[in-house]
Design brief:
- A 7-stranded parallel sheet has the order 8-7-6-9-10-11-12, with helices on both faces.
- The chain is built from 12 helices and 12 strands.
- The two termini are 23 Å apart.
- It is of the alpha/beta class and 333 residues long.
- The longest helix has 19 residues.
- The structure holds 1,4-dihydronicotinamide adenine dinucleotide.
């Protein structure tokens, strides 16, 4: 098979060449977009990461395409419906990093609770004053987890280690799990009202678009903290900025932002095709950066050595399953 890989580092390229010797591989450091697609019009498979948007326009250029293999859990960057229509299979990597993302979630929670970001900023300037650096304990605090899937479960386990009280909201309930891990299911609004820290671990889709929005953000306990390592679109950024500006929220830690690719590549602004509606998001994201009780990491929660190795190994298995036409559990249905 001829396979186009996008958004890869050198070490990953070397590993894939070694493991997929039988195939014809082409590598690109950039994402798959309307420019780069011109170099791979005859491929059978594309393997991409989150910044490649696989939309109708891209798919229409790839007439021989049999499969899209994302090296990520979330697949909201792929138009799965359009793939299905064109009989193109979509594969993902469901379980590479539940502990990895959960650990990053706690890195964010601890950074906020112990003001690590502010302490660091101060000590590198030789200032060892404790002024405004008082934090708070996690022990005894209520952690509200939205989405108790692979990652959410790990977050609950770690929270128990800190002796936090854990409450959870999920559209599906697993009472055995709640007993085993010692958390209680609650309604969505009750979770907002009763949590000291709220953390999001649900997928992003039509139903979870702006799950936390201008209306319900007002229900959140005054001074509570909001953590998002799921997807930027799960939170209405405008509502978040307002709640922070009014002091209703104690702070926020975000690994993901709405339309985060734009803040990463602001040069896109110069393009005459830049959609005006995205400008609002860009401004809101810049406002978030100005709050000293907001910590933003650049969609980095997955990024551990071990997780990346697991991603590559699963991607190789997914690709091999296509070539031998074997059923694969990582096929997105
Ligand atoms: P998962 O599919 O195992 O769990 C998601 C959970 O959310 C499920 O229990 C599901 O029932 C629940 N859910 C679905 N709709 C919901 C709703 N409307 N309200 C509440 N709960 C709902 O997914 P996993 O592996 O735990 O990942 C969660 C999300 O984390 C992914 O969808 C992805 O967007 C994000 N992620 C972020 C990474 C990062 O680097 N920041 C890395 C990996 C994943």
């Amino acid at each position: 098979m001829r396979i186009g890989f996008f958004e890869l580092e050198d070490w990953e390229e070397a590993y894939l060449k070694e493991k997929l010797k039988k195939h014809d591989l082409i590598f690109f450091k950039d994402e798959l977009n309307k420019k780069t697609v011109e170099n791979i019009r005859d491929v059978d498979v594309v393997s991409v990461f989150i910044y490649s948007k696989i939309n109708k326009q891209i798919l229409s250029k790839l007439k021989k395409l049999k499969a899209v293999v994302t090296r990520f859990t979330g697949f909201d960057h792929i138009n799965v419906k359009e793939c299905r229509k064109r009989k193109i299979s979509v594969f993902n990597v469901p379980n590479y990093g539940e502990n990895t993302v959960a650990e990053h979630t706690f890195a964010l929670i601890l950074a906020l609770s112990r003001k690590i970001h502010k302490s660091y900023e101060r000590t590198i300037r030789g200032n060892f004053s404790l002024e405004n650096l008082r934090g708070f304990d996690l022990k005894g605090k209520v952690l509200g987890i939205i989405g108790l899937g692979h990652i959410g479960k790990h977050v609950a386990r770690i929270a128990k280690g800190f002796e936090m009280k854990v409450i959870a909201y999920d559209v599906k309930k697993d009472h055995k799990l709640s007993k085993k891990l010692g958390f209680k299911y609650t309604g969505f609004n009750d979770l907002l009202k009763n949590s000291d820290i709220i953390t999001l671990h649900c997928p992003y889709n039509k139903k979870t678009h702006h799950l936390i929005n201008g209306k319900n953000i007002k229900l959140i306990k005054k001074g509570a903290y909001l953590i998002n390592t799921a997807r930027g679109g799960n939170i209405e950024t405008r509502a978040l900025v307002r709640a922070l500006a009014k002091g209703d929220l104690g702070g926020a830690a975000l690994d993901v932002l709405e339309e985060e690719s734009i803040i990463k590549e602001e040069v896109q602004l110069l393009s005459k095709n830049f959609p005006k509606e995205n400008l609002q998001n860009l401004v809101e994201n810049h406002l978030l950066l100005t709050f000293d009780n907001v910590i933003i990491t650049p969609h980095n929660a997955f990024n551990s050595k071990e997780a990346l190795q697991r991603i590559l190994d699963t991607t190789i298995k997914n690709i091999k399953s296509i070539s031998i036409k074997e059923p694969c559990k990582n096929l997105v249905k």
